[in-house]
Design goal:
The protein has about 260 residues and is mainly alpha-helical. It is about 70% helix and about 0% strand. It is built from eleven helices and no strands. α2 (about 30-50) runs parallel beside α6, α5 packs across α9 and α9 runs antiparallel to α10 (about 205-225).
Length: about 260
């Protein structure tokens, strides 16, 4: 029954399987406007609170606090995990490329797929993604965090993108201007990959595709750790903002639905 509802575009997250939910009217151009608006907000936060304006001392201070918390809970193993693979250049190059591409490509693909094939679920999960990203931007602004790859050398981390290479580099002038290298807490990579899993899982039919969808956030977690772009605690922060984003997205979706019904 659930599969039939998914095929029909019914919002299985918002109503029992026996209740028919009207499919909202969606316009692709309106969605592009929303995306452009969010990018403008991101740009504003990046330019005022990003690595171009925030002191390295403040970001390093926050990094030491994160490491202390991880040590208390026994999860500060990022250094050991990365060093297992430092002798495998092609392996690390693959994860550098994965880190820089899958984050956007898979998320965009999931959003487009849901817009076309699961319109009933689209408003809730689009709103969830928007709220999650907005909450992450607040985190970036309030808690600039130096990622492991930028820590002093005595911490033992390697910036794999700089040393082994990928499709791009943070050291290039263009990337330095458009990237916030202290946007580590929370990890949007983990938040977005988890969002993709929730979005795509109901649409999968075969056991191996379900397994791949479920594994995707954990694959992403490995990528952000082995490339020294994030701490494990950043992923925990990503899970938290996704949970809060879902609650806010659900409230916004319900409010919009009640307005449309009046």
């Amino acid at each position: 029954m659930t599969d039939a509802l998914v095929d029909a575009g019914t919002d299985v997250d918002a109503a029992p399987a026996s209740v028919a939910v009207p499919v909202p009217r969606l316009r692709w151009w309106r969605e592009l406007v929303y995306i452009a608006g969010f990018y403008a907000v991101y740009t504003a936060v990046r330019n005022t609170q990003g690595s171009a304006t925030v002191s390295a001392e403040r970001a390093f201070h926050n990094a030491r606090r994160v490491i202390r918390v991880e040590r208390v809970f026994g999860i500060y193993h990022e250094h050991q995990i990365q060093h297992v693979f430092l002798g495998h250049r092609l392996f690390l190059q693959f994860w550098d490329v994965f880190y820089g591409t899958a984050h956007f490509v898979v998320t965009a693909g999931a959003l487009i797929f849901m817009f076309r094939a699961m319109k009933g679920r689209y408003p809730l999960w689009r709103n969830t993604l928007a709220c999650t990203t907005a909450l992450a931007l607040v985190g970036f602004a309030l808690y600039p965090l130096m990622p492991p790859r930028l820590l002093p050398t005595h911490y033992g981390f390697v910036d794999t993108l700089r040393v082994y290479g990928g499709l791009w580099s943070f050291d290039s002038g263009a990337m330095q201007k458009i990237s916030n290298q202290y946007a580590a807490m929370p990890s949007l990579h983990f938040a977005w990959s988890s969002w993709c899993a929730f979005v795509l899982y109901p649409a999968t039919r075969r056991w191996w595709t379900k397994a791949l969808v479920v594994a995707y956030p954990f694959i992403t977690l490995f990528a952000i750790v082995v490339t020294a772009n994030h701490y494990v605690l950043d992923a925990v922060g990503g899970a938290v903002v996704l949970g809060l984003g879902y609650l806010l997205g659900r409230a916004i979706t319900a409010y919009n639905a009640s307005r449309a019904a009046t």
